[in-house]
Design goal:
The protein is of the alpha/beta class. It has two domains: 85 residues; 135 residues, no CATH class. It is built from five helices and eight strands, in the order ααβαββββββαβα. 19% of the residues are buried.
C-alpha cells in the first residue's frame, strides 16, 4: 500500500475512479451555476432596496426645504424631483385623463387617478397635476364625472418623476384618449400641442380640488426587497456549505 494511503491522505482528484470524477466535476459545475444565479438575484433585489432607500432619503431631504414656485420655463427632472412646489394657473379640462387600474391602498378598490394639465399663469407651459384617486364604476363604460374647477387656482404638491417603462398587453391607441393605462410622459408630450414639465405634481392632502391622496412612499416594499436579497444570499451560502460538506465527507 502506498505511504500516502497508509497515512490516511485523500487521493488527488485525478486519481479518483471515473464515475466519482464525473460526479465531482458535474457537481462542482452545478454548484457554480446555482451560486452565480442566487448571487445575481440577491444583487438585483439589493439594488432595488438601495434605489428606493436613496429616493426616500431625497424626498425627506427636499420635503424639508421651502416651497418653490413651479418654473415657467422647461426645467430638468432631476432639479424638480421631490420638490415641494406651488402652482398658479388654470386647468385644461379638455386634456384631462384618467389613469386606469389604480388601487386604493386603504380600501383595495380599483379606480382611476385623475390627471389634469395646468397652464401656468403668464406662460404656455403646462404641468400635469395628479388630483388623486376615485373609485371605478361596476360598469367600466361609465367614467367618473370629475371636471376641474374653472378660473385661476393656486395649488401645492410634490413633484415626482413617473416611470418611463411599462408593461402593457396591447399597444396604446393613437391620439388623445380619455382613459390611459399608464402615465406615460413621453406619449403625452408627443400628443400635446404645448410644452410640458417633465414631472407630475401629486396634490397635497390639504390642497383643494383633489380626491383620495394616499400617495405611496418611494421606499414602499423596500424591506421586502432587502429580505428577498438576504434570502438569495443565504441560498448561495447554503449551496456552498452543502457542497463542502459532501466533498469533505467523501474524502
Amino acid at each position: 500500500m502506498p505511504a500516502e494511503y497508509a497515512r490516511g491522505a485523500a487521493p488527488a482528484a485525478s486519481a479518483l475512479p471515473p464515475t466519482r470524477l464525473r460526479i465531482f466535476v458535474w457537481g462542482g459545475l452545478l454548484v457554480v451555476i446555482l451560486v452565480a444565479g442566487f448571487v445575481s438575484l440577491g444583487l438585483w433585489q439589493w439594488n432595488k432596496y438601495a434605489v428606493k432607500t436613496v429616493l426616500q432619503a431625497e424626498l425627506d431631504r427636499r420635503g424639508r426645504d421651502a416651497v418653490i414656485a413651479m418654473p415657467r420655463r422647461a426645467a430638468s427632472a432631476d432639479f424638480l424631483r421631490y420638490r415641494h412646489v406651488e402652482l398658479t394657473g388654470e386647468f385644461d379640462a379638455a386634456r384631462q385623463i384618467l389613469i386606469d387600474n389604480r388601487i386604493d391602498p386603504t380600501t383595495e378598490r380599483a379606480g382611476y387617478h385623475i390627471v389634469t394639465p395646468l397652464k401656468l399663469a403668464g406662460s404656455d407651459m403646462r404641468v400635469l397635476v395628479n388630483r388623486g384617486w376615485v373609485p371605478a364604476s361596476v360598469d367600466r363604460r361609465i367614467l367618473p364625472e370629475v371636471p376641474p374647477p374653472t378660473g385661476t387656482v393656486n395649488l401645492t404638491g410634490i413633484a415626482v418623476v413617473p416611470p418611463s417603462k411599462f408593461f402593457t398587453l396591447a399597444p396604446p391607441a393613437a391620439g388623445w384618449q380619455p382613459v390611459w393605462q399608464n402615465l406615460d410622459l413621453g406619449r403625452i408630450k408627443a400628443a400635446a400641442p404645448w410644452p410640458l414639465q417633465p414631472v407630475v405634481v401629486q396634490l397635497d392632502v390639504a390642497a383643494p380640488h383633489g380626491f383620495g391622496r394616499n400617495w405611496p412612499r418611494p421606499d414602499e416594499w423596500a424591506d421586502k426587497h432587502l429580505s428577498y436579497a438576504l434570502q438569495w444570499f443565504g441560498f448561495a451560502a447554503s449551496t456552498i456549505g452543502i457542497w463542502l460538506y459532501f466533498l469533505l465527507r467523501r474524502r
